Amino acid sequence: MLDKSLNLTVDCIAYDLEDSVTPSQKNEARSKIKNLLNQPRATGIREQAVRINAVNSGLALDDLTEVADPANQKLKAPNLDTIVIPKVNSASDLHFVTDVIRHTLPSRHIHSQSSTPSSTQLPPIKLLALIESAKALSSLSSICTSTPYLSGLIFAAEDFALDLSITRTPSLTEFLYARSAIATACRAHNLPSTIDLVCTAYKGENGLQTLEEECLGGKGLGFNGKQLIHPSQVEVAQRTFSPSEKEVEWAVRVVIGDEKANQQGRGAWTLDGKMIDAPVASKARAIVTKAEACGMEIKEIRERWKNQKPE
C-alpha cells in the first residue's frame, strides 16, 4: 500500500503512525515510513507528510526521532515536508514538537534559513495541527501563534463528535460552529492550509456525490482543502476546491478591467451590470493566483479577454 501511494497525483499525502497502526506495530510502521521517505520523491506528490502519535500518548518523541532522524542516514529528512500532529489541545503540544525539530533537524529550522538560500537548501519543516476537541477549539488563538512552523489546521470531526458526545449527521450542521471557528482562525493568523473534515463515504456514485457536497460546503465556509481516505476521492476534491472555469474567466475579466480602470483613475467601475471595487478586484486576483497554482492556462484566458474594458 505504501508503494502504491507513490503513483498518486495529490497535493499532500500523509503517512500515518497513529490510529491506523496498532501499538504492537508502531516500530515496524516507523521503519517502513522512514524507508519510504528514503526513496526518490514521487513526481505526482507535492508534499509528503507523516502523522505522528499525539504528544500526550508518550509515542510522539519516538516517531519524530525515527522518521526525522538525520544522524544515521545523513539525509536531513529531505523528502519529509510536513508533520501532522493529532489531538492538539493546547500550544504546549506544538511547543514540544517544535523543540524536537530544532534539535533533530537544525538545518530545517526556520531561523537557520539564510536570506539567500542555495538551490540545495531544504525548506523548513511545516506542521499541521489536528483540532479534535472542545479544549482545542477554545484555544485556537494560542495554538495558531505557538510556533513559526505551523502551516495550517485540520478539523477532525469524528474525535470532535466523540468529545462532545454528539452524532455526525449528513447535514454536518452539528459541526458548523467548529468548522467556522477553525477557518476563521486560520485566516486571522494567516495560515495557508485550512483542511476540512473527512468524508467517510467513498464508494459508488452516492459516495462521490456526498463528497462533492461536503467539499462545496467546506469551500463555502473558508476551507481550502479536505482530508481524503481513498484515491477515488482525489479527483472530486481537486476539482471542487479548484476555481471553476467560469470563476477564472470572471476573475481574469475583472483583473484586466481593473488594470485599465486604475490607469483611468477609477476606483469603482461596472462589469456585466455589477459594481467592481477594491475588495472585489482583490478577490479576483486571489482567484487568478489560485488558478495558476492549480495549473490552469491563465495566459490563454487573458489573451481572450485582453480587450475587456471597465464599463
Overview of the molecule:
The chain is α/β, with parallel strands linked by helices and about 300 residues long. Helix content is about 45%, strand content about 15%. It has 14 helices and 9 strands. The protein has helices at about 1-5, 25-40, 60-65, 70-75, 90-105, 135, 140-145, 155-165, 175-190, 205-220, 235-240, 245-265, 280-295, 300-305, and strands at about 10-15, 45-50, 80-85, 125-130, 150-155, 195, 225, 270, 275. A 7-stranded parallel β-sheet has the order 1-2-3-4-5-6-7. It has a two-stranded antiparallel sheet with strand order 8-9. Strand 6, helix 10 and strand 7 form a beta-alpha-beta unit. Helix 3 packs parallel to helix 5, helix 10 (about 205-220) packs parallel to helix 11 (about 235-240) and helix 12 (about 245-265) packs across helix 13 (about 280-295). It is globular, with a radius of gyration of 21 Å. The protein starts with a helix and ends in a 7-residue tail after the last helix. The mean pLDDT is about 90.
Helix and strand string, N-terminal first? HEHEHHEHEHHEHHEHEHHEEHH
Largest sheet: 7 strands, parallel
What proportion of the residues is helical, as a percent range?
Answer: 40-55%
User: Radius of gyration from the CA trace?
Assistant: 21 Å
Query: In oligomeric terms, what are we looking at?
Result: single chain
Strand content: 5-15%
N-C termini distance: 56 Å
Spatial strand order of the main sheet: 1-2-3-4-5-6-7
Based on Cα principal axes, name the global outline: globular
Query: What do the pLDDT scores average to?
Result: 91
Number of helices: 14
Uncertain residue ranges = none
Number of strands: 9
- Secondary-structure-based class equals alpha/beta
